[in-house]
């Protein structure tokens, strides 16, 4: 398996940096999708509890984080 990986890395040639950047950006998008799903779920549940009067919540920071994660996801 390691031999196959080394062979693939040799095939990349001089463009390996661009491909590494592409992989890194792909991982960033996947992580932002997971974070967006988790934060949105928490935010909706917290707003439901706040609407019932059970908790108080400051909603500006989570709303801004959701918007930022959505923008990162779109990139």
Low-confidence stretches: none
What summary fits the major beta sheet?
none
Shape: elongated
Radius of gyration equals 20 Å
- Report the span from N to C terminus: 33 Å
- Please count the helical segments: 3
* Helix and strand composition category: mainly alpha
Helix fraction, binned, reads over 70%
Fraction of residues in β-strands: under 5%
Describe the structure.
This protein has 75 residues and is mainly α. The chain has a domain at 25-75. The chain has three helices and no strands. α2 (16-51) packs antiparallel against α3. The longest helix has 36 residues, at 16-51. The chain is elongated and about 60 Å long. The two termini are 33 Å apart.
Which key features would you list for this structure?
single chain, 75 residues, mainly alpha
């Amino acid at each position: 398996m390691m031999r196959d990986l080394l062979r693939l890395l040799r095939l990349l040639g001089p463009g390996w940096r661009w491909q590494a950047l592409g992989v890194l950006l792909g991982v960033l998008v996947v992580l932002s999708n997971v974070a967006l799903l988790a934060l949105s779920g928490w935010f909706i549940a917290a707003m439901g509890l706040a609407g019932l009067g059970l908790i108080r919540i400051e909603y500006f920071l989570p709303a801004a984080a959701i918007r930022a994660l959505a923008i990162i996801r779109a990139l």
